[in-house]
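Retro notes (design track)

What went well: tokenization of the new backbones is finally stable.
What didn't: we kept losing track of which sequence belonged to which structure.
Fix going forward: every design gets posted as structure first, then sequence, in one message. First example under the new rule, 287 residues:
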């Protein structure tokens, strides 16, 4: 006969073994990963100065034009000066701006646009920009709440001073056979090639020769047929530029001096372009 004491001992042992078995089947939950984002105030390594930079008075310089209600612009420091804009990314709510342009002084975030048509060319225009703000001494012990910079841009006298005007030899879409392409300015009345800059678009227009290797030449003497408007409408460039109109895309001079054009025509039924696909031209400027 088994006494009650032995039964209780056996029951306790069985229950303990069962609980241990159940516990051994549970998966251990991993500990949460520690927060390591220095920009998050809830993390142990939070750094209030993480990513902080001293404000800079540097500014953008762009030239551009209005085409069919759309303003098209590009950043550079060599301009024909059709409409030059100087702009800062720093809000006027937190920063006090002062611009010095010749004898003029402006206190807005961005000074007004201007054409510089009365400036004798060639000319180098220097602009000084000063900003004042509440200093951040927590992150920068020597921050005095002040920065200034002087930047200059150049106004051309001749069209060939721009890297995107002249004669170029290159290839389309990485083909092996090269050809010569010309981007020129012409007199609106005579159709003759001109190089002297005139700030009056009623007297000059842009003309291409052998655009996309289509075979036309200056000697064919039909400038209005060769006029770049046939392919690029209101095409305007500096050292960088854009296509607009029936042709869309971009044109620029790369750091190695290569002329790069990326373009396509929206509708090729009005010219000799073979398709409406995207194409690239890369070439070097000829002397």
């Amino acid at each position: 006969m088994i006494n009650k004491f032995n039964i209780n001992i056996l029951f306790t042992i069985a229950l303990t073994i069962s609980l241990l078995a159940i516990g051994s089947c549970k998966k251990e939950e991993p500990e949460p990963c520690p927060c390591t984002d220095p920009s998050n105030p809830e993390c142990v390594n939070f750094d209030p100065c993480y990513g902080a930079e001293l404000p800079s008075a540097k500014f953008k310089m762009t030239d551009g034009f209005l085409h069919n209600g759309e303003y098209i612009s590009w950043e550079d420091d060599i301009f024909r000066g059709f409409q030059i804009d100087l702009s800062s990314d720093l809000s006027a709510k937190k920063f006090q701006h002062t611009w010095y342009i010749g004898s003029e002084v402006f206190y807005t975030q961005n000074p007004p646009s201007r054409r510089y048509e009365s400036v004798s060319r060639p000319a180098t225009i220097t602009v000084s920009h000063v900003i004042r703000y509440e200093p951040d001494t927590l992150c920068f012990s020597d921050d005095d709440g002040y920065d200034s910079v002087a930047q200059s841009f150049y106004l051309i006298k001749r069209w060939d001073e721009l890297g995107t005007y002249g004669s170029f030899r290159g290839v389309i879409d990485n083909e092996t056979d090269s050809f010569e392409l010309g981007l020129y300015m012409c007199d609106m009345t005579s159709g003759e090639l001109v190089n002297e800059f005139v700030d009056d678009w009623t007297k000059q227009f842009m003309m291409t020769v052998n655009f996309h290797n289509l075979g036309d030449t200056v000697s064919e003497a039909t400038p209005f047929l060769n006029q770049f408007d046939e392919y690029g409408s209101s095409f305007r460039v500096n050292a960088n530029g854009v296509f607009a109109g029936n042709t869309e895309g971009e044109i620029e001079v790369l750091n190695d001096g290569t002329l790069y054009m990326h373009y396509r025509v929206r509708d090729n039924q009005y010219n000799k372009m073979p398709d409406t696909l995207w194409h690239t031209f890369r070439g070097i400027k000829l002397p």
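Added context from the reviewer: The radius of gyration is 34 Å.
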